[in-house]
Amino acid sequence: MATKSQFRLFRSRNFMPLFLTQFLGGFNDNFFKSAMVILITYRLADAAGMDARILVTVAAGIFILPFFLCASLAGQMADKYERASMARATKIAEVVVMSGAAVGFYLESIGVLMVVLFLMGAQSAFFSPIKYSILPQHLKKDELIGANALIEMGTFLSILTGTIAGGLFILREGGGSFVSFLVIGIAVLGYWTSRYIPPTRPINPELKFRYNVIRETAALVGEVMPRREIFLCVLGVAWFWLVGATFLSQFPTFAKDVICADEQVATLFLAVFSVGIGAGSLACNGLLKGEISGRYVPWAACGMSAASVLLYFASGMSHAGATEIGVAEFIRQAGNVWLLACLFAISFFGGLYIVPLYAIIQSRTEEKMLARVTACLNVMDSFFMVLSSVGTTLLLTIGLDIPQIFLVMAALTVAAAFVIRGVKNTLWEG
Fold first, then answer.
1. Cβ(298)–Cβ(365) under 8 Å?
2. What mean pLDDT do residues 34-48 have?
3. CA distances in angstroms from 122 to 62, 70, 93, 423, listed in the order given
4. pTM of the complete model
5. Which of 311, 36, 276 is nearest to 160 (CA)?
6. Which string of b and e fits 386-399 if b means at least 16 CB within 10 Å?
7. DSSP state of 256
8. How far is CA 47 from CA 40, 50, 181, 193, in A?
9. What confidence tier does 319 reach under pLDDT thresholds 50, 70, 90?
10. Cα dihedral angle (160, 20, 242, 142), rounded to 10 degrees?
11. In terms of CB atoms within 10 Å, which of 32, 138, 246, 410 comes out highest?
12. pLDDT for 148-181, tens place per residue?
């Protein structure tokens, strides 16, 4: 498929309603999370006498935990029921959950907001296998690279816009009320767009549900693991989300404690990171020209690692002052331009890295297995992101600062790139 063809998917009912639904859901997730994290970092943590760094890291783990707990059931439901109807059901659940978010912001309660964060993660966990398993049912094989590039671009564009909006409005006068109104309104709009997703045929309507979470999750992973090329792609995707979760969760405290900057600079970091992912995702389709191949994946991992090392040194070039600076003052400091360039490079290589892995999974998994493989992907993603949360908390506890944590990620990503590079050529040459 030619590079320009990916944008033609926006005119297709087989793609556009799904894209809008997932974009609005991603926007709402990140709008709420950003508002919550900024509120905790700059107001609630100090009032409660708690460490904002630990609270923010714990929050990241709380959001991801439902992906692990709900993955097996979500995969079974995506196989048993018609997926477009399932998408609409998850959007109705989002409206209910976001109504609870309004209560949390009104009370300014860390506990209530954490509960809502968990429920929001659960809602997203049920939508995820629908989103990825429905693409091969609606699209041609040579459209999958372009479709996944647009989905990843949309995902991180929603992170960008949602994060910017949440960070900008929550600390203003009446910000809690405005954020509450918008999260409910976006959830309603997401339900409306989901009504236009074309129906699909259920893959296994006779499926009997198995509710033992631990046993079924282990069985799910065990079912996919022998499929070596698919499972290695699953691990590769999971590693990307571990890296991404580590960076994204630490940006607010990185801005506040390392750069001595306000919440708008934290939002700038997230914006640059999100734009980089989108640019890398679109560039991937241009490089591969619609071919499903992972030949650039190991090199992209090396690029992420090298840029992370440069970010460590660029962090030392930033001159923190006694008072928090804003975006204008931050940009005027020459060393910070290099810091932003490093963030963009990390995420750009991340976009090149992640898109082929999703397309390989979708194209090489038989239809009857795709929802369960996607559920397995969610299990591994959530496990690695919870591992990121736990590992980052431990590293902070033993005294590492945030730039040093970024350096640890660079070293670990080199190891991941080495493992990926060792995979047999049949996987990467498509």
1. no
2. 83
3. 10, 7, 10, 33
4. 0.73
5. 276
6. bbbbebbbebbeee
7. I
8. 9, 8, 25, 40
9. low
10. -120
11. 32
12. 778 878 887 887 788 788 878 888 888 889 999 9
Query: Could you identify the residue written with the tokens 């975006």?
Result: 327
Q: Return the amino acid letter for 187.
A: A
Burial of 98 (0-12, 13-18, 19+ CB in 10 A): buried
4-10 — which CB contacts under 8 Å span 24+ positions?
A: 5/143, 5/146, 5/290, 6/143, 6/145, 6/146, 6/147, 6/149, 6/150, 6/282, 6/285, 7/150, 9/139, 9/143, 9/146, 9/147, 9/150, 10/150
Residue 61 — left, alpha, or beta (φ > 0 → left; ψ -120 to 50 → alpha)? alpha
Indicate the residue type of 414: V
CA dist list (Å): 70 to 121, 128, 221: 10, 11, 14
Token readout for 57 is 């890291």
**Strand partners for 325:** 261
Could you tell me if 308 and 407 are in contact, meaning their C-beta atoms sit under 8 angstroms apart? yes
Categorise residue 290: left if φ over 0, alpha if ψ from -120 to 50, beta otherwise: left
Give the distance from CA 377 to its chain's centroid.
13
Q: Show the domains of the chain with their CATH numbers.
A: 5-202+212-428 (1.20.1250.20)
Write the pLDDT tens digit of every residue in 106-120: 998 889 999 999 999
Q: Which amino acid is present at 428?
A: W
The sign of the dihedral angle between the CA atoms of 335, 338, 342, 344 is: positive
Selection from 157, 394, 393, 428 nearest residue 273 by Cα: 157
DSSP code per residue over 134-179: HHHHHS-GGGHHHHHHHHHHHHHHHHHHHHHHHHHHTTSTTHHHHH
The set of residues, in sequence order, having a beta carbon less than 8 Å from that of 132 and lying 6+ positions away, is 358, 361, 362, 370, 374, 377
Backbone angles phi and psi of 326, in degrees to 5: -95, -175
Distance CA(11)–CA(34), nearest Å, equals 31
Handedness of CA 285, 286, 291, 294 (dihedral sign): negative
Cα separation values, 390 from 65, 102, 253, 394, 410, Å: 12, 28, 16, 6, 18
